[in-house]
Amino acid sequence: MIMSIVRHPIRAKYADEWPELAAEFTTATRAEPGNICFDWFRSVDDPNLYVLVEMFRDRAAGDAHVNSEALLRWGQRDRGCLRFVRVPIRSFRRVR
Question: Over the stretch 36-89, which tens digit does the pLDDT of each residue have?
Fold first, then answer.
């Protein structure tokens, strides 16, 4: 299992509508084979900061997501909404 936690600092003018702006991409990603979760969380301290927690069954499923058409389209579209480039905090592999 692969988990990534990604910070998305959003420009203030887009922060309240971010869930709607991300809805199509979120739905597409959740439908991908091997996706376990793809969940957005909004900071309680900074209303312009969202964190995305995404989990995939294995490395192959994560790689398929990274190379998906949905992610390519999303990457081209979301740049204007972000305050700066999003940075993954860490990717983790589940230990038993």
Answer: 999 999 999 999 999 999 999 999 999 999 898 888 887 776 666 776 655 555
Strand 87-93 relative to strand 35-42, pairing: unpaired
Distances in whole angstroms, Cα of residue 40 to Cα of each of 29, 43, 68, 96: 12, 10, 19, 26
Q: Do the Cβ atoms of 53 and 21 come closer than 8 Å?
A: no
CATH label of the domain that carries residue 84: 3.30.70.100
Does residue 96 have a pLDDT over 70?
no
The pair of structure tokens assigned to 7 is 């910070």
Q: Which residues pair with 38 in a beta bridge?
A: 54
Domain enclosing residue 21, as ranges: 2-93
The count of structural domains within the chain is 1
How many secondary structure helices (H) and strands (E) does the chain include?
Answer: 5, 4
